[in-house]
Design goal:
The chain is α+β, with helices and mostly antiparallel strands. It contains 16 helices and 22 strands. Helix 10 crosses helix 12. The longest helix has 64 residues.
Length: 646
């Protein structure tokens, strides 16, 4: 890995990640400190409000104690009760009612006046609080109870009245918790917190705020004494909206950091890809250079004006000139043969016009040594990286040796075909001799008869006309057989000419009909009614049909006589004439079918293995195709096609 793509290349990204992490830690610490500050502030505010409520309740209790002392001195019927209670309830609205009872628990006076006292405003356990305050001789707080109306939950304060040490009565003050919180808890506290008074079971008895806390924030709880009885003050902070500026600043910082990380990552990725591309380019250049050095095909590039801009080593070796001698040169080129200069100029102008043949063209070029060679040139447009046509690229092949090899191969193929025909004729010699024997015997018979009639001396000329005519016909027949054999054997160079496919097939069958009859084989020929024609060498096509028919005859040597049949048919479809040769012989196994057309492969014990290979070469030379199919009724079917001529 190189510098830009290794661990050093990742240091900027790592640094930015550390910056983001540290920034996150800093913001977390600030948030934590803020939470701690709010928690401390909440505790302080809770303690303050608890102390304020405690001070207010105890102050009212002391005021009631002083009133009880004065009533003990002046008597329970003193008008002092109304004057003092009026002042006390005016300064403390949470004191909903003050009741004066005598030692027998009878209600003497109430403030505000109520006669009789409503049962709903009497605590269920007031008797217990009454006895406990009388016993202790000091103020006692009762349990919370439902006062009703807007007052809600309330509790009683029991203050005993003594005269000269004797218990004479009881002041009972009812305190409303809702009014207590409403009067004593300041507005700023209610804006920040929700204050609730709950009992030991967690039931809310009174609250300062009626706003429900959707998402509770910090909370703190303290005991509410007095009055006690399991009451507690619960204060819950409202969740404040986060600081918009701080949030925006934090989001902007994180966004910038993330953008920087992504930018660095993209830059690192771009650098890595660039280095990989450069490395790949170097590797590709080295590969192309090695490939270029190993090529045997000459490559030459020219600009739009025909000036040579590039040549490879193969082209330099081909013409014998160095690249420095060729690059920058303009026509006439040093490798043009003087006698071919006009032809080279003509093709040069055609290339610049874009009229070069796509299949390539041939030129005679000259090496530095003066040796001529034949080259096959393919020209193609040269397109630059921007898609603009910037010149022409040529691929140049030295085809001198190839043409020599092709000529030699063609000659050898022709010799092989002629040899195959000779072998075929040799194998058919006895049959052909029998074919010739019939017309020759007839000629001899007709000639002897004519001589006998002439020796008799009484012959008329019209009597000799018929036998002499038949003698001439038999002589022509023998001559045709000999000429066909002569053409078939001595033909060496292909001669393509229009020929009727039906007649070519029928002519080939004429060679093997006698051999088929000899083996008891029936031959059926079904010509194409459309009488198709093709451009072909009829001797070579006859050789293909003759080879396939003889193979069919030999394949049916072991076939029962009533199944010995060769069916030859011609049909035309889609511009192709299909010749079908079907037999009922032993057939060909799938293993044999794979190598059926390969050279020197034969199913015969004494076969050369060249017959089908030669047949396929002949058919393909005529732009056709030869293949094999199994016969559904048993045996083999060989088919080949020839282009039909309209």
């Amino acid at each position: 890995m190189r510098l830009g793509t290794g661990w050093r290349g990742g240091l900027p990204i790592l640094a930015m990640v550390l910056v983001v992490v540290l920034l996150g830690i800093l913001l977390w610490l600030l948030q934590r400190n803020e939470v701690e500050d709010r928690s401390q502030s909440l505790i302080q505010d809770v303690l303050w409000v608890e102390q304020d409520l405690h001070f207010h309740i105890t102050t009212n209790a002391e005021s009631l104690t002083r009133l009880a002392d004065r009533l003990g001195r002046e008597g329970l019927n003193s008008d002092l009760f109304y004057a003092e209670t009026r002042t006390l309830t005016a300064s403390s609205p949470d004191l909903r009612r003050i009741v004066l009872r005598d030692s027998g628990e009878k209600v003497l006076r109430t403030a505000p006046p109520a006669d009789p006292l409503p049962e709903t405003e009497i605590a269920p356990d007031w008797h217990t609080g009454f006895i406990l305050a009388r016993s202790l001789g000091q103020p006692v707080y009762g349990a919370p109870f439902w006062l009703g109306g807007e007052s809600g939950i309330a509790f009683d304060v029991y203050v005993p009245v003594f005269r000269q040490g004797q218990f004479v009565g009881m002041l009972v003050a009812t305190v409303s918790l809702n009014e207590l919180l409403s009067q004593q808890v300041p507005w700023w506290f209610a804006q920040k917190y929700r204050l609730e008074i709950v009992d030991g079971d967690g039931m809310v008895l009174a609250t300062k705020s009626q706003v429900e806390v959707a998402e509770p924030g910090l909370s703190h709880q303290v005991r509410f004494e007095p009055p006690g009885k399991g009451l507690s003050i619960v204060v819950t902070a409202y969740r404040r909206e986060n600081d918009l500026v701080r949030n925006l600043l934090s989001a902007a910082i994180f966004g910038l950091a993330l953008t920087a990380i992504l930018s660095l990552w993209a830059l690192r990725r771009h650098m890595r890809r660039r280095l990989e591309a450069e490395q790949a380019l170097r590797a590709e250049h080295a590969f192309r250079k090695a490939m270029e050095e190993s090529l045997t095909i000459g490559m030459r590039a020219r600009d739009l004006d025909g000036r040579v801009t590039y040549v490879n080593s193969a082209f330099c070796r081909m013409v014998g000139w160095e690249a420095t001698d060729l690059i920058g040169s303009v026509p006439p080129m040093v490798y043009w043969a003087p006698e071919e200069a006009e032809n080279c100029y003509s093709m040069f102008r055609a290339v610049l016009r874009g009229d070069a043949p796509p299949e390539g063209f041939e030129l005679i070029l000259c090496r530095k040594s003066g040796e001529r060679f034949k080259a096959l040139v393919y020209e193609a447009p040269l397109i630059d990286s921007e898609g603009q046509h910037s010149g022409w690229m040529a691929s140049i092949l030295d085809i001198t040796e190839r043409e020599r090899a092709e000529d030699l191969s063609r000659q050898q193929q022709e010799k092989l075909q002629r040899t195959a025909r000779l072998i075929t004729m040799g194998e058919m010699a006895s049959t052909l001799a029998h074919e010739l024997n019939q017309p020759l015997s007839a000629i001899a018979s007709y000639a002897a008869g004519c001589l006998n009639r002439l020796d008799a001396g009484n012959v008329r000329a019209e009597e000799l006309e018929a036998p002499l005519t038949k003698l001439g016909a038999q002589a022509q027949r023998a001559g045709q057989i000999i000429r066909r054999i002569h053409d078939f054997v001595r033909k060496s160079k292909p001669s393509v000419a229009p020929c009727a496919i039906n007649r070519v097939i029928e002519g080939a069958i004429g060679f093997v009909e006698a051999d088929a009859r000899k083996h008891g084989i029936r031959m059926t020929v079904t010509p194409d009614p459309t009488e198709p024609w093709t451009d072909a060498d009829h001797i070579l096509i006859e050789q293909v049909v003759l080879n396939l028919a003889r193979n069919a005859i030999e394949a049916m040597c072991a076939t029962p006589w009533f199944h010995r049949e060769i069916d030859i048919s011609i049909r035309t479809a889609e511009g192709q004439s299909v010749v079908r040769v079907a037999d009922r012989g032993t057939g060909i196994t799938p293993e044999m079918a794979d190598g059926l057309f390969t050279p020197f492969f034969s199913t015969k014990e004494e076969g050369m293995g060249m017959g089908l290979n030669i047949c396929r070469s002949i058919v393909e030379w005529h732009r056709g195709r030869l293949w094999y199919e199994p016969n559904p009724g048993g045996g083999s079917v060989f088919l080949f096609t020839l282009p039909a001529k309209e």
